[in-house]
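ok so i was messing around last nite and threw this chain in just to see what happens. nothing serious, just curious
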Amino acid sequence: MLDSTQTPDGRSLVLAEHDGDYSISVGGAELMSTRKHNSEDKLAELACVGLRTKRGVRVLIGGLGLGFTLKAALAVLGRDATIVQAEILPAVIAWNRNEGYPLAAEALKDPRVVLAQQDVAVVIRESQGAFDAIMLDVDNGPAALTVDGNKGLYGVAGLNAVKAALKPDGCVVYWAAAPDLPFEKLLSKVGFEVEVHRARAHTTSGSWHTLYLGRPSRLGLRRKPRMLG
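result:
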């Protein structure tokens, strides 16, 4: 163990290193690792692919983790983009800023990055029509929460707040450890066109994770899933 902190609900969040690989776990369960981050990369690529050539893009990432979604978004977006990276825990920010760890120190120095030490739910509620894309990877998904306080992000009020924070042609992508049909249906019910994508934890192996892409729509249509490597 390298360091630990407490989540807002009092659980222990631990940063550990083993044979050069870094991981974050909560309550003894691994949340993320530098060994397997393909789905975190795909989260950003899916949200930002249509923004590659757009000027003045503004996006929001909820949850810093080990910095992989942030780095993937920086690799896609243009030089005049703004990436608001929201992270509620000071220790997680400190871990990523620590240049002794191979995490996100350089990415956080990028002039395109605005770091908000704040609950992403608060950022969303205070940002009406502000973002071209929102990427949310704050827990294991709607049905596999490790921090109870994250539940509100996946309910009706949370989804409506996300929709209000997006520009008319914007999108949101949610990361989930496993498929969640009730959540998919709820996205459609509150007025999103929904695409369901899958991505492996590692590029060619490991567990399959689920990415829910939503675009505001009055029709709430659901599109067919598409596989990601």
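not much to say yet. Confidence is low (pLDDT under 50) at residues 220-229.
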